[in-house]
Amino acid sequence: MSKLVIAEKPSVALALAKVLGAYQRQDGYMEGNGYLVSWCVGHLVGLAQPDTYDESYKKWRRDSLPIIPVNWKWEVADDKRSQFKVLKDLMFRTDVDELVCATDAGREGELIFRLVYYQAGCKKPFKRLWISSMEDDAIKDGFDNLREGSDYDNLYEAALCRSKADWLVGINGTRLFTTLYDKRLTVGRVQTPTLAMVVERNKQITEFQKQKYFNVHLRDGKLEVHKEKIFDELEAKRIQEKCNGADAVVKSVIKTEKNVNSPKLYDLTTLQRESNRYFGYTAQKTLDYTQSLYEQKLVTYPRTDSQYLTEDMKDTAESMILAVQMAFDFGDFPPRDYDVSKVINNSKVTDHHAIIPTAEIQKQDLSQLSQGERDILLLISQRLLCATGEKQRLSETEIKMECAGEEFFAKGKMVLDMGWKAYEMEFRSRLKSKTKADAKEEMIPLMAEGEVLKGVEVSITEHFTSPPKPYTEDTLLSAMETAGNEDFDEDTEKKGLGTPATRASMIEKLVSSKYLERKGKQLIPTDAGINLICVLPEKVKSAKMTAEWENSLMEMERGTVKSERFLADINKWVHQLIADYGEVSEEEKQRFESDKNNKEQIGICPRCGSPVYEGEKNFYCSNRECKFCIWKETKWLSGMKKKVTKKMAVSLLSKGRVAVSGLYSQKTGRNFDANLILEDTGEYVNFKLDFSNNKKKG
What we know:
CATH topology of the largest domain: Topoisomerase I, domain 2
CATH class of the largest domain: Mainly Alpha
Number of helices: 22
Oligomer: single chain
Strand content: 15-25%
């Protein structure tokens, strides 16, 4: 008998197959040593579109809302049907008596496997592989200690409810506000509150009124003290005139020693933030690099929200400190009094521990990695040294002086022991790009209480208050992580907007939807993004609401919240949203007219003669009464691995046909050429193929 192992990606499946001894390559899977090892290629199965429930939902109408399925339907992605068939056939092979879920060990990985399993109608028992490293030993240990699939039923329920909640909010919210404003307006459970934060920051910046203020500086040649942020220029000048040339007395000298604790290890969000800060990589790019390193067995599982290791990893952590020293030539900084216990905390590790390098960094040729992979691996490695290193010790001095009845202050600091900071400074020195340096040491000369400075010189400098800074991916990820937390009790574990695994994709979606744009490292809302947030109600863009839902999903994973209750609350929320927003004024609809006016006309509508413009997912008629549109992607075209491009749409609108090469035949597995003909029924836009002057489908 055989065990069927299902991974999330081909690369992971091949790594598992190698360890299991399944070396025989077949069509869509590996076989050998009693194992069949295959893969899902990401999400093979997803929630069906509304028109699957009712044909009338093909038309977007406000009076058809809310759309809330009673019996949820699922469908296989058109471009992944062949791999789904491979998996289904393997599941029903008579020699397969058990399955192993080996998708990524997290909420989404669980969902990917379960949906394929249930869609295929499989009822065979399955176990769960739960590992945090792709090292051979970790894989072997994982298969030696497979867990019961039922242990993760709560995780699956949370993933399923997350998927349904996103569908309900996205489908109903998007259709509601699109039909109200005659403009496609995308609404999402996580993306809308995230966009709202960026728009609010942009508002704070644009409405900021800078204020002039003055600092008064007193010096005698060896010491300078200050009186800061005086908003009245006359008052600053009065102080200058009164103190200039007068004597100043040292009223107090306070010296303190401070320790700067070492930072924590990386979870995904802090890794993405610092990667953006040091290298300018986007959150998604950082995740991609880290995932690649994970699959190459060089780092542990990336999609984690923990910054600690477990007790049983103490020896591993200690050995990795030496491995990092050798692999990255930190030889000038020999390990000294490392305290691995600082990064050990079983209570703060749930599904996965913090991200650390693996022993493979000593075995592999790291020069073969891409630049991005090398950057991220070095970043993760130096963090292990910093997190387990000694405290940095500082000496801080604060002096208070009095002159003509006015008080002045000066602060200075001196590093007594660099501690863990030595590793961080060495890391920064290796970066090609410049990064913001730490504040320089400000040395204060030795002064004694009661000491007098004779005939001091006084000057004034002019400054302005600064507006808030635009979000970068670093600061936006931080804001997403803590959004809505102030509304929870102190005892509540807080999760913010989204999860470490999904925040990067949310930012990318906002950029691709043209609601945000990147300017260097900054994330700036577009006019479309600002207008969208202006028209949406608070309940849709509330970070509090989304954080509450995310907290409920987390509780669902632990079995303390029922899925029925969660979805009932979502359904109630959707019903109320539709009930509250029935219509908007014609004047309010004009808010988005400028978006249309700036668009390039690509053709004339064959039904009414109005201009046709390109939208995010279609080419649409500008006449509100005319529903003509050409969808960029359809199931029929996707089956031939094609979608309608702008160039194709121009030809279809002007000639009614376009020559298309490289169409794919699912029947023969070969490509062919044909003419795509536009057929407009007056209600629906269809296509057909014409093989005139083309080679027919084989």
